[in-house]
Design brief:
This protein has 393 residues and is of the alpha/beta class. The protein has helices at residues 80-92, 107-123, 189-198, 212-221, 242-249, 266-275, 326-335, 340-354, and strands at residues 9-12, 15-18, 21-23, 26-31, 34-40, 50-52, 57-60, 62-67, 69-70, 73-74, 95-102, 132-133, 135-139, 177-182, 202-205, 225-226, 254-258, 281-284, 296-300, 303-308, 311-313, 371-374, 380-385, 388-392.
Amino acid sequence: MNNGQTRPILLRGARLVLPQGVVEGQSVLIERDRISRIDDIDRAASLEATLDLVGLTLLPGFVDVHIHGAVGVDAMAATAQDLHFVARFLARQGVTSWLPTLVPAPDDDYLHAVESIEVLMREQDTRPAAARVVGVHYEGPFVSQQQCGALRAKFFRTYAHPADLNDLPIPKVTSAVRMMTMAPEIEGGVDLIRELDGRGWVVSLGHTRAPFDLLDRAYAAGAHHMTHFMNAMIPLHHRAPGPIGWGLSKDGVTCDIIADGVHLDPLILSLLLKVKTPTRLTLISDAIAAAGKGDGEYEIWGETIAVKERRTSNARGTIAGSVITMLDAARMMHLLGATQADIAQMAATNPARLLDLAESGSIEEGKRADLVALDDAGNVRLTIIGGRVAYQA
């Protein structure tokens, strides 16, 4: 099934994590790239391609909106083939859609990265099944010099006119998602949000120390999401709540989080589950090229990034992305008390909604057949992407 053609598949015996709750005793019929029917097991038609998933839990496929690379590949320097190699790895981790995420860099680096993304987007349905690239995420360059994190501040920009966006290439594929993480306090920040929102970009606030009133203006201009919440933001203070206090208090604001136990302490992750609830949280990996490679030193973004015991660090001692996957994040949140329905919400439904992927993010008749089956230990046993088996243990 590597040539883009699919045949009907019947998934039988799994616990199904549906929008209305977890159900048992039903089958999922996949025809072409769609879920065509969810029905009782004894009424499901017998098909040649029947997969027995007894003992497994079937969730909507994970959507990673913030990932820089994995298995030795950096999205900034990748070819289309390199990106597909990452996509195959991600499929084994339950990811069915992803946004290659770019860091502030010279114009030529941006152009090369987006050209590779565009090539893969046009070819991926005819390549071996793998996690689907759905667009591009620019982390910066319009972010705060004071909250740069591991980003290279020398490539940061300010905004004065719509032409200031012309040097940021975007995939020309009609369906391509365009997302940007930016800080509203940069020169022209609120005007930038209005311009991006008017062009159909997903605008997320991050790498920021903006005060409450400016964040309210950013929200009114179209920024309703926050990037790797609490990281690369000025810390919460009881007399200066800043972006963290703002994000916690605003019901209309959604937040993505790096649930690796390093970027955020597990106690903070538990607090976020209570305060923001799974309906307003999105899991991300924020993975870099070292993900999936183990401990060692790696040349990424023009510097050496060390990985030791799943923690990244650059020469300045700053955390530089993560080496987890969405599966790792899901396992962490499950250990902290999140249910399988919560995991589906945070890893699939919410990110799909953020990116306006209306056909993905949940197990429902008529939606894309992007699915992942997990065993009781949280291991991926099966990943289906667009009706094609991308991974089977």
